[in-house]
Amino acid sequence: MTGGAAGRAKGARRRQRPGKGGRDDGWAAPPGTGRSIGKEPLRCGTPGDNLPHAIPSEEPSAMARAEYSFFFPFRVRYSEVDGQMIVFNAHYLTYFDTAITEYFRSLDYDYREQVELTGEDYHTVRTVVEYYAPIRFDDEIEVGVRTARIGRSSLTFGLEIYPRGSDERLASGEVVWVNTDQTTHRPSPVPAVLVEKLRAFDGEDEAAPPEGG
User: Does the model's pTM come out above 0.90?
Assistant: First the structure.
């Protein structure tokens, strides 16, 4: 689910200046496209209710761009858009997953080594995407990642997408992982070394102390 390597990700960007926040221009897409209609963003999620370690459903809260310390850039490829030349909704989760991978790389944390040494790996138990404005073919975008919550066995990531160099929020989302013993398939505590790195990167106040779940 993530890749591990030392050093900061190439092309990754650190904190940007604060801005005006999200965009609401009443943009509407045809029915069935999975994008926002009018002023209410549509949400898609995978709560993982059939898993023993499922996380209760909660709505993610949008953050200001200045609250993100890590950004990873993308340029929209032709294979990612639909017939309207707008990014197909499922590709937002690909952007999120890739950005989280690079976020971990920037921590100087060897994710693969954790798997090999402990026999533990992360299961994705929840994903949420909120769509605010369309992203089009060849647009340059940046995905912000931060650790919103550290539980006993879970990590909750907050993510937002912006145009390159802009404060206009295009989408936001949440991804929840649970660290799991790959033999018993039961939750295991998040490694202490990772907790320490996450708190150092995002700040003590931003990454909440471990709780149940």
Answer: no
